[in-house]
C-alpha cells in the first residue's frame, strides 16, 4: 500500500462516525505497497485498516472483492473482513475516493522467505482455490494477456531509458505469449497478487492473506505461476529449486495439477513475470508527484522473464512427475 490521497481529520471523523467502531484515536498512512492508499486506523474499539481505492481498482469491481473476502472467511481462509457501517454497507466514499474499513490482521510478512514459508503459501493458495469454488460472482482478469500490449504502449517508448534493450525483449516475449497462451485450463477464483507482502506469518506459521484487489476468475495454475515468481527467486536472481519444490508439493497435497497445467507452467510463469514487469514499468515511469510510494523495480521481473524463457518443463521449477 501507499498513500496517494490525503484525508482531512474532520472528513475522517465524519466517515468513521457512520460505523460502530468508536471515535478515531489515531491514524497513520502506510507507506508499504503501491496500489491503493492505506491507513492504520486506531479507534476506541481497536485497530482497523482504512483503504481508499486508487487508479487500478475499478469501483464496479469492489462488490466482488468485498464479497470474496466474506466468502473465503466463511470457508476458513483467514483474511481481512469488511466492516459494515450502520446502514449495513461495506463501501463508502472518502476524500473523493471509494473507501472501505477492514479488520486488522495479526502477523508479519517475511522479507526473506524460506522453503517452509513457500510450502505454507503453496498450501494456502490451493485451499483458496478450493474455497472459491462456490463463490457465485465472476470477474475477468483485467491484467491478463489482452492487457499486456496496451500496458507496454503506456510505457510510451521510454522502456529503453530504464534498461537498454528492454523494449525489444518485451516485444519478443509478448509475441511469443500471444502465439501460445493456453486456454481452457482449470480455473476459478484466483488471488493474482499473492506476493510476500500479502501473506502474514506468526512464529513461522501462515496466519492470513490480505490484498484481494486483483482477485479475479482465471486459471489456477497462473496463480501458482505468480507465486513461483514472487517467492522462489533469490536476491541474486537465481531460481531456488528447493523453494519451488516446497511450494508445488504443498500445493499438490491439497489440489493436484492436471497434465495440461503441468505442461503450461513454463509459459504461465513467463506471462506472470511479464505482467508484473509491465505494471512496475508503467508505475516506475509515472510516479505521481507528492505520493508516499516507493515504486518497485521492473528489471527484477525482466530478469525473471529471461530465466523462464530458458525453462523447458515444470521439472525445472521442482515439480516431480
Ligand atoms: N488487514 C490488514 N491487517 C494488517 N495489516 C494490513 C492489512 N491490510 C494491509 N495491511 C498493511 O498494509 C501493507 C500494504 O497493504 P497491501 O499489500 O494491501 O497494499 P497494496 O497497495 O494493495 O499493495 P501491493 O503493492 O501489494 O498491491 C501490508 O503489507 C500490511 O503491512
Ligand atoms: N505485487 C505487485 C504490486 C501490486 O501489483 C508487485 O510486486 O509488482
Compact summary:
A hairpin with a 2-residue loop joins β4 (92-94) and β5 (97-103).
Topology:
Elements: H1 9-16, E1 24-29, E2 37-43, E3 46-52, H2 62-74, E4 92-94, E5 97-103, H3 115-131, H4 145-154, H5 159-162, H6 166-180, E6 187-190, E7 199-202, E8 205-209, E9 216-219, H7 220-231, H8 241-254, H9 259-285, H10 298-309
Antiparallel strand pairs: 1-2, 2-3, 3-5, 4-5, 6-9, 7-8
Helix pairs in contact: 3-7, 3-8, 4-6, 4-9, 6-9, 7-9, 9-10
Using the alpha-carbon principal axes, give the shape: globular
Total beta-strand segments? 9
Please give the alpha-carbon distance between the first and last residues.
Answer: 39 Å
CATH architecture of the largest domain: Alpha-Beta Complex
Order of helices and strands: HEEEHEEHHHHEEEEHHHH
Rg over C-alpha atoms, rounded to the nearest angstrom: 20 Å
CATH homology superfamily name of the largest domain:
Aminoglycoside phosphotransferase (APH), C-terminal lobe
Largest sheet, order of strands side by side? Answer: 1-2-3-5-4
The overall average pLDDT, rounded, is 95
CATH class of the largest domain: Alpha Beta
Major sheet summary line: 5 strands, antiparallel
CATH topology of the largest domain: Aminoglycoside 3'-phosphotransferase, Chain: A, domain 2
Q: What oligomeric state best describes the polypeptide chains here?
A: single chain
Question: Structural class of the helix and strand makeup?
Answer: alpha+beta
Total count of helical runs of at least 4 residues: 10
The helicity comes to 40-55%
Amino acid at each position: 500500500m501507499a498513500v496517494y490521497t490525503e484525508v482531512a481529520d474532520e472528513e475522517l471523523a465524519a466517515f468513521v462516525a457512520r460505523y460502530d467502531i468508536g471515535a478515531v484515536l489515531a491514524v497513520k498512512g502506510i507507506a508499504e505497497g503501491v496500489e491503493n492508499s492505506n491507513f492504520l486506523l486506531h479507534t476506541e474499539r481497536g485497530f482497523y485498516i482504512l483503504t481508499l481505492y486508487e487508479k487500478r481498482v475499478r469501483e464496479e469491481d469492489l462488490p466482488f472483492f468485498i464479497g470474496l473476502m466474506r466468502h473465503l472467511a466463511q470457508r476458513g481462509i483467514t483474511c481481512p473482513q469488511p466492516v459494515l457501517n450502520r446502514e449495513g454497507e461495506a463501501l463508502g466514499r472518502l476524500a473523493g475516493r471509494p473507501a472501505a474499513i477492514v479488520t486488522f490482521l495479526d502477523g508479519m510478512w517475511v522479507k526473506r522467505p524460506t522453503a517452509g514459508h513457500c510450502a505454507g503459501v503453496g498450501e494456502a493458495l490451493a485451499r483458496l482455490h478450493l474455497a472459491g469454488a462456490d463463490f457465485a460472482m465472476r470477474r475477468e482478469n483485467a491484467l491478463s494477456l489482452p492487457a499486456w500490449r496496451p500496458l507496454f504502449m503506456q510505457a510510451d517508448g521510454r522502456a529503453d531509458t530504464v534498461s537498454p534493450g528492454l523494449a525489444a525483449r518485451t516485444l519478443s516475449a509478448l509475441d511469443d505469449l500471444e502465439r501460445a497462451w493456453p486456454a481452457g485450463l482449470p480455473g476459478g477464483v484466483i488471488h493474482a497478487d499473492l506476493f510476500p507482502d500479502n501473506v502474514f506469518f506468526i512464529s513461522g506459521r501462515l496466519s492470513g492473506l490480505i490484498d484481494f484487489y486483483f482477485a479475479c476468475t482465471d486459471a489456477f495454475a497462473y496463480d501458482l505461476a505468480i507465486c513461483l515468481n514472487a517467492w522462489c527467486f533469490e536476491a541474486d536472481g537465481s531460481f531456488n529449486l528447493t523453494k519451488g519444490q516446497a511450494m508445488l508439493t504443498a500445493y499438490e497435497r491439497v489440489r493436484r495439477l492436471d497434465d495440461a497445467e503441468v505442461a503450461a507452467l513454463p509459459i504461465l510463469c513467463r506471462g506472470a513475470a511479464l505482467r508484473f514487469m509491465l505494471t512496475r514499468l508503467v508505475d516506475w515511469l509515472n510516479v505521481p508527484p507528492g505520493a508516499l510510494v516507493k515504486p518497485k523495480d521492473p528489471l527484477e521481473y525482466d530478469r525473471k522473464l529471461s530465466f523462464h524463457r530458458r525453462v523447458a518443463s515444470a521439472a525445472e521449477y521442482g515439480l516431480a512427475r
